[in-house]
Specification:
With 725 residues, the chain is of the alpha/beta class. It starts with a strand and ends in a 15-residue tail after the last helix. Keywords: Coiled coil, DNA damage, Nucleus, Transcription, Transcription regulation. It is found in: Nucleus.
């Protein structure tokens, strides 16, 4: 399996919201004014007539030169309108009243209200500020001329719909902006014990978006907040044991089930196919360009060689004048030529000769590389015939002969070096063959000892490679301890006195007799030498692993050096690329995100807010604290109805997690009942709808006369409302 494949989508326009006809007078208008969605309908009905996002956008169509006010789902009609949409809420409090007014206009228009004799029942957040409520009251009475209004807490209405009137329990309201834990005892809210967690659906989707931005900082497309919100609702879930599950979620078997591949839209680049004739022409142009460059380089080399020969002849003529001129005149000639004394002239002459010899060696080496088999038939070469001028005195040769003799000396030196290298290789091969025979004999006679030695050697080589990498990394930092110790060793070696001549009877130099003596060279290795040493270690471990894979039954391919150092085997690769094949050259793969650990991490904040640095208790810890304040009898009443409601309560596994954590702290045999609301998104409206047709609603509502007499701050307390200030 390669996980779940998901194509990223934006919220789609569900269609125009229908406009309903007016109903009979005096039926209450029920509005669940949530910070994410607004639901509106008529009191006593089982479902709301309207349900839309609580947003408003003023969008200007440049083609028509017209500005439109779009509300709710209509903001999805135009692509640009959704990005500039505004909410009436900031956190959980209404703050943008011009937006709220547009949303209410749209709501009443779609409900088809024709007259002003419908009471209003509206939800509000727990502990809603008095200023926000009084402004809403003033807006409803002054602008819309409603006959009466009553407010209730959304979480309490949801509890009322699920548990019934006069019940005891806890309403765990996981909303869009915040979450609340509301205890209810015998139908009465315990407002002084209620607690709020500053985390909700908006915070969760924003957190998920930031996690993706941090995980893929160079992703070519920007993920939108609306896309992150859809992903959160589609794929996040609550883990029964977060610590245990997150520790194994990146295991290959688990990741194959949990990893979600998010494919973003992309445009495949269409490459123009060239004909065979065009490809041949391009190849011929490249070859011709290469030949021109080679010819230019050859001409340049010849020009430089001629310049060096000319400079050498000039310096030799200048040196020859020392035998015919007086010392004073010769010094004057040297100064005119740019030399301070004869020593500087000799140094320059030596430098030019060295450059000429180096150029000749390079030319010779290039010639040797062009041969098919430079070491073929070395033993059959007749040295006297191949290099006849090597032993001829210089006095017997002219200028051309001397130059040819120098070339032959270089060729003979190279021939001698190759013969010595061939002899050394023969000795090494003999020693290696002897070691291989001894190793084979040990394997046959004592297999367990052989296996143990190979495993120890494999571990030793892995440690050496790791140490080599560490030293190489530290040598690149001049301030590291390793780099400073290397400089100290170099300074110590440079400061040691060197005796130019051994006195008679002085003891023999014993450096190298002990293996410890050679460690001084390892202490002063540079990064390039460490690189060569590391390559040698890798070659040794490859040869060793070949034997282990053939004979050691417990040594598997996943234990090899390549497997252990394969980037695909690291946790970071699993975290960012999952288990599906990844091709860096593929455009489609470059537009993919992997959604794995975040599926658990985002909803876990409800239980452990410290994950995001929130200095608050989790929802279960709050419930536990509330239960501890009550007697056994009251506690038993509270735990019989723990209703989980709100948008985040739709996370799979949340009821089981709350139940497991509470059972661990409750006495054995406790009758705990944790359940999700029948409809977490609509139950607040349904509870308000049921309550709005009761006599209590009529008695609790604030009439227009009471508003005019006592002002917008007037409030009547009831079981589902906020406490009086």
């Amino acid at each position: 399996m390669t996980g779940i494949f998901h194509t990223i989508r934006d919220p789609t326009f569900p269609g125009h919201t229908p406009t309903f006809s007016n109903v009979s007078s005096e039926i209450p208008i029920v509005i669940d004014n949530g910070s994410w969605q607004l639901r509106a309908g008529w009191g006593g009905e089982k479902e709301p007539r309207l349900q839309f996002d609580n947003l408003m956008s003023r969008y200007r169509d440049r083609k028509l030169s017209r500005t439109s006010t779009l509300v709710g789902n209509d903001t999805l009609i135009e692509v640009g309108a959704r990005s500039i949409a505004r909410s009436p809420f900031e956190q959980n409090v209404i703050n943008n009243w011009d937006v709220m007014e547009s949303v209410l206009d749209y709501t009443f228009l779609k409900l088809g209200i024709e007259h002003q004799d419908h009471p209003v029942c509206m939800t509000e957040p727990f502990m809603n500020p008095a200023y926000s409520r009084s402004t809403m009251t003033e807006l409803l009475f002054e602008l819309y001329q409603v006959p009466s209004v009553a407010y209730g807490v959304d979480g309490l209405f949801s509890f009322y719909h699920n548990a019934g009137k006069d019940s005891s329990g806890v309403a765990l309201n996981l909303g869009h902006s915040t979450s609340h834990v509301l205890p209810i005892l015998d139908g009465q809210k315990l407002a002084h014990e209620a607690k709020r967690v500053s985390w909700g659906g908006a915070s969760s989707s924003s957190y998920l978006l930031r996690l993706f931005q941090m995980k893929y900082p160079f992703f070519p497309i920007k993920m939108l907040p609306s896309q992150a919100q859809l992903l959160m609702h589609d794929y996040c879930h609550i883990s029964p044991d977060y610590n245990a599950e997150v520790s194994r979620v990146l295991d290959k078997d688990v990741l194959s089930r949990e990893d979600v591949v998010l494919q973003f839209p992309y445009a495949e680049a269409v490459a123009q196919e060239k004909s065979q004739e065009e490809l041949n022409q391009i190849a011929e142009r490249k070859r011709e360009s290469g030949r021109r460059l080679q010819a230019q380089a050859a001409i340049k080399r010849k020009e430089k060689a001629a310049e060096r020969e000319k400079e050498l002849n000039t310096l030799r003529r200048l040196q020859e004048q020392s035998s015919v001129l007086s010392k004073r005149d010769y010094q004057k000639v040297l100064q005119e030529a740019g030399f301070s004394d004869e020593a500087q002239l000799k140094a320059q002459l030596k430098n030019v000769q060295s450059r000429i010899r180096r150029a000749e060696r390079d030319a010779l080496r290039q010639h040797q590389h062009q041969q098919e088999d430079p070491e073929a038939d070395l033993a059959d070469v007749d040295v006297e015939q191949a290099f006849p001028l090597v032993n001829v005195p210089d006095s017997d040769l002219d200028e051309a002969g001397l130059r040819q003799k120098r070339n032959q000396k270089l060729l003979k030196a190279n021939y001698d070096a190759r013969m010595r290298a061939k002899a050394d290789r023969a000795i090494e091969e003999a020693v290696l063959h002897e070691k291989q025979e001894a190793d084979e004999q040990l394997r046959k006679e004592s297999f367990s000892v052989w296996v143990k030695q190979k495993r120890e050697l494999h571990k030793h080589l892995l440690d050496k490679i790791q140490e080599n990498r560490r030293l190489k990394s530290e040598l690149n930092d001049r301030k590291s301890h390793t780099s400073q110790m290397r400089m100290k060793s170099l300074a110590t070696l440079a400061s040691e006195p060197v005796q130019k001549k051994r006195r008679k009877g002085q003891s023999e130099d014993t450096f190298g007799a002990s293996d410890e003596d050679w460690k001084v060279y390892h202490d002063v290795l540079n990064a390039e030498q460490l690189e060569d040493e590391g390559k040698r270690f890798v070659e040794e471990i490859y040869a060793l692993e070949k034997q282990q894979l053939e004979y050691d039954p417990l040594f598997r391919p996943e234990n090899t050096y390549d497997a252990l150092n394969d980037p695909k085997s690291t946790l970071l690769y699993a975290f960012t690329r999952g288990v599906s094949p990844f091709d860096p050259e593929s455009v489609a793969h470059s537009f993919q995100l992997h959604f794995n650990v975040e599926r658990l991490r985002v909803p876990e904040v409800l239980f452990t807010p410290s994950i995001v640095g929130l200095d608050q208790a989790g929802i279960v810890e709050i419930i536990r604290g509330i239960l501890q304040r009550h007697s056994t009898e009251e506690r038993d009443k509270l735990i019989k109805n723990i209703v989980v409601t709100g948008g985040l309560s739709k996370f799979p596994g949340i009821v089981k997690r709350v139940e497991n954590e509470l059972m661990s702290v409750l006495p054995v045999g406790s009758q705990l009942n944790v359940y999700s609301a029948s409809d977490p998104l609509l139950d607040a409206w349904k509870g308000a709808s049921e309550w709005s047709v009761t006599e209590e609603f009529k008695n609790i509502s604030i009439s227009r006369a009471e508003y005019q007499e006592k002002g917008p701050d007037y409030l009547k307390e009831h079981a589902f409302g906020n406490p009086l200030p």
